Amino acid sequence: MTVFTIGYEGLDASTFVALLKEHGVDTVIDIRELPLSRKPGFSKRALAGVLDQAGLGYVHMRDLGCPKPVRQQYKQDGSWKHYSQGFLRYLTGQAAALERLADLTRRASCALVCFEADYRQCHRSFVADALKKRAGAVVRHIEARG
């Protein structure tokens, strides 16, 4: 089983969908705690609609989003180390959500989505790594060219 990750930062909706299709993704798993965006086409309802029109599925998994206290701490201190520690501590309590994610990725070609373009600076990399450990998933990060 392969799970993809993708960030929509710097992408418009059509490029985002094209990248998903290019990689054979058929279900997007939104792992933002609050799936809101100022970027057209990327708030929960709009994104679900764009994906539906493209023949792709959409699942929101709030429990795999980064909790507000961790995000707020990162805004205050800018420490990726503290952010990582806080999110990983939170993620250890999300066994049920990770099992649901594993089940989804066994049945469909899925991509974890969040905002940040660089997966190395996004919590989705931690979620993908947890899935790799839990279910043996192969993780592939989709990056926009250019």
Write the element-wise H/E pattern from the N-terminal end onward.
EHEHEHHHEHE
Q: Please bin the fraction of helical residues.
A: 40-55%
SSE class: alpha/beta
- Contiguous helical run count: 6
**Coarse morphology:** globular
Mean pLDDT: 96
Low-confidence stretches are none
Oligomer: single chain
Describe the structure.
With 146 residues, this protein is α/β, with parallel strands linked by helices. The chain is built from six helices and five strands. Strands 3-2-4-1-5 form a five-stranded parallel beta sheet, sandwiched between helices. Helix 2 (44-53) links the parallel strand 2 (27-30) and strand 3. Helix 3 packs antiparallel against helix 4 (80-91) and helix 5 packs across helix 6 (124-135).
List the topology elements.
Blueprint: E1 2-7, H1 13-22, E2 27-30, H2 44-53, E3 57-60, H3 68-77, H4 80-91, H5 95-107, E4 110-114, H6 124-135, E5 138-141
Parallel strand pairs: 1-4, 1-5, 2-3, 2-4
Helix pairs in contact: 3-4, 5-6
Give me some keywords for this one.
146 residues, alpha/beta, 5-stranded parallel sheet, 6 helices, 5 strands
Outline:
With 146 residues, the protein is an alpha/beta fold. The protein has six helices and five strands.
